[in-house]
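Sample pair:
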Amino acid sequence: MRVLFLPDNTAGNPYQRKLAAGLADEGVDVTLASGYPLSTARTIVDTRPDVVHVHWVAPFVVTESLLGSIVQSIAFLQATVVAKLLGLDIVWTLHNLSDHENAHPGIELAVRRVFARLTDAIIVHCPAAQDQMERRYGLDTDGKTTVIPHGHYDGCYENAMEQSEARDRLDIEEDATVFLYFGQIRPYKQVPELVDTFRGIEDNSLRLLVAGKPTDEAEARRVATASEPDKRIHTDLEFIPDDQLQVYFNAADALVLPYRDILTSGSAILGMTFGRPVVGPTEGCLPELLDQQSELLYDPATESLADALYRTSDLDLATLGAKNRRQILQYQWDEIAAETRRVYETT
C-alpha cells in the first residue's frame, strides 16, 4: 500500500515521522509532499499512492489576503475532487478545528465543511474531538470517523539531564517551584496573559519559565514588557533547538498551557512524555488525556488559570508527572500505525 502525507511538517513536529515509521513496519510505503500544487502533482505521478492522507488543512486555505484565501480554497477543493475522480482515497486527521489565528474564519469553515464531506475517512485523537467536529461542521461522521490516540514522543528528544543540572544552566534555584511555557508564542496561546496571571500570584518560591519563539515582533514585545518587572520570570524568546528541550522540561515542575483554543495538544503530550504534570483548560482532548491529574485542569467558564496554579501548592507534582508519563507511554506507535492501516484498508 502506498500513502502520501500532506503537508510535510516533519521539520517542526515528530508526529508524522513516528507515524510513517510505524506504518513502514506495517508494510505501508509513506511519501511526504509539501502540498505545493506542482511538486505535489509530480509526487503523485511518481509514487502513484493509493491514499492521500491530509494532516493539516489550513496551509492550503488560509493566507493573509482574503482574495488569496478564496483562490487557494477553490484550488484545494478542486484538487480534492480530481484526486477522488482519479480513484485516490482521501483520509483526514483532524488535529484542530480551525486555524488558530482565524484570519478568514468564514471561508475556512466553509472549506472544512465541504472537505469533511469529500473525505473517505476521518481520524480524530479522542471522542471529544469527534463531537466538536460534528457540531462545528454540521454533519454526522459516525460512518467515517475513527478515534486513534496521538502517540508519545519518547525517544524523539534527549532526556538524560537531572533537574539540578537543568536549573543550574538556567540559573534557577533548586528549591523553587517552576512553571514552564514551552513552544511557539502565538496570540491564541495567550502567553502575555499567562505572565500577567503569574505576576498576580504573590509567592517568592515560584518561578515562570517562558521558552519559545514569538510569531512576530509585536508578540515578542508584549511578552517581554509583561515579564520585565517580575524577576521571578525567566524568558528565552527564541527558537529552542531539539537538543535543548530537555533543559527546559527537566528544569520545570509543571507545564502550563494557557490556550484559549485547543483540540489536540502536542505540547501536552510532550510534557507528559517528559514526566511533567500539565496545567490547562478542560478543552478538546485534554480532560481525557490528563485524567490522571484532573485537579490541574480548569473550566474557563467557571474558573481561571490562576485558580489552577494556586492548586498546585497542595499537590505532589512529581507523582502526578510520573503518572502522566506512564499514561502517555501506553500510546505506542506500532499500535497506532496498525489502527491507521486498518482505516486505509476500509476506505
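The mean pLDDT is 93.
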